[in-house]
Amino acid sequence: MRRIRLGGTERSFAAVGLGCMGMSWGYDEEGRDENESIAVIRRAVELGVDLIDTADQYGPFTNEVLVGKALRGHRDEVLLATKGGLVVDDPVTYRSHRDGRPEYLRGAFEASLRRLGVDHVDLYQLHRIDPRVPVEESWGALAELVKEGKAGALGLSEASPDEIARAHAVHPVASVQSELSLWSRDALTDGVVDHCAREGIAFIAFAPLGRGFLSGLIAGPGDLPKADGRHRLPRFQPEAIAANQAIVDRVRAVADRLGATVAQVAIAWVLAQGEHVGVIPGTKTRRYLEDNVAAGSLTLPPDALAELDALPEPAGPR
Hints:
By secondary structure, this protein is an alpha/beta fold. It contains 11 helices and 12 strands. The strands form 3 sheets. Strands 3-4-5-8-9-10-11-12 form an 8-stranded parallel β-sheet, with helices on one face. The chain has a two-stranded antiparallel ribbon with strand order 1-2. It has a two-stranded antiparallel sheet with strand order 6-7. Strand 6 and strand 7 form a beta hairpin. Helix 1 crosses helix 2, helix 1 packs parallel to helix 10 and helix 4 crosses helix 5. The protein starts with a strand and ends in a 9-residue tail after the last helix. 46% of the residues are buried. The mean pLDDT is 97.
């Protein structure tokens, strides 16, 4: 599996990382299993996965505690990444607001260190830019954490090229994390992926499997657990799920020709968008973890890439 350099640093990470959100937030509330999630994280490390991604929003707060437990004895084997700047108002509806004030971010960061049980993180990311606070102010406050040795590098999440450039002028942007998949290509069309390539910034794609839909395992709402946040998303409404099966069918046809799974092809397509592009698919099971990691060794031939590039737009906004 190729490695990706964290912009402006000597650190690198394997192209397929692990997003830990679903272990504590968003998906299948009744099916969470802390012991299995810890086993998944530790198995990921065994497989060479070294980018482990969490955030204080997930839970809220409980995912960082879980990740901290899983990494005891393995801290030096991973690039530990967390995020701050999104504050949960209602964990039932997942309603949150942005807070980029320097004083808030400092307190959020220190709280993340305590929950993770570490004295530093390798990558601290501004989860969303607060429109009420100039990005230069938020970013300047986070830059102090790097000077103090508490954060190895800084990243942005869901930022525009202009916002990335403004932050980069204050302190190097090491990474940008945004959604990118076969059915969510905004980061390509709005120029973020290209901007990162030009500036030597790592691009980290979250939800490369379309929040699980591109695994090929969701044929209707009944395939989602009852207590699952995806029920509220437009693309997971009955009509949209039915319409979007056509996308999965075409990905499956490519996968069958290559002797791969639907998920592996979906991940490999994201990785093919640039040498600086990595992914953090999430999972709560070791079986799917191993399937995802294997995608890092799958090279899509030109005809498969062309076929996937030509997939239609999905039904429903993301």
